[in-house]
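FAQ: What does the model actually see?

It sees only this:
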Amino acid sequence: MHGDICPWNLLIDPETDTIQLFDFNSSAKLGWEGDDDPDHNHEFAYDKDRNDVKFVIFTIFEIITRELKFRATWEPHELDESMEMKMPVWDKHADVPLDCPVEEFRRVLETWVKERAEKDKTVDHFSKASEPLEWPALRTEPDLVSLGQYLRVLGTHRARFVGAGKEYIRWERPATKAMPLPAGQRLLATGEIVGGDGDGDDGDAATGRSGRR
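And it is asked to produce this:
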């Protein structure tokens, strides 16, 4: 279950007429209670109030009408798909191009919702799916650094990882004086600068000195 289907989590390719769904931060396996590791306290457990069918209904309504009042007003557990399904008319926004009448979209949506309701009667747990997904348990949180009597920071200094022989992400931000980058150069996710005459080897001017990770 994605858990957060909405217009701003969709990418549409107009050339291939395909949709990509992203941002799986709220995803969970259907019926799953989450990691039983005490360090994670059942994080990413299934939340029935984030039902994908319900959120698909809201998403299609929002795309057609550009009306976000429901999700802007109520929390997921307060949202009810009947808010929109029982509306006699969905007023299409003037700037929204559609290739068929709104009524046809609603007819297809209602048919799909009924089909999913029948399927959900038998598949009420991810393990019952034809191709159930599995993923590894969450990793334990990084060490906590105590700064004084009251402040505890989630994280640690890189030097502690180096001294303990632990792995860490090697990422160096460009020095402030190196920004913005000259035309033709790009900053990679690794922190490396590529392009230009130096092809990433710009010395100290292209390397930051951040001590936290």
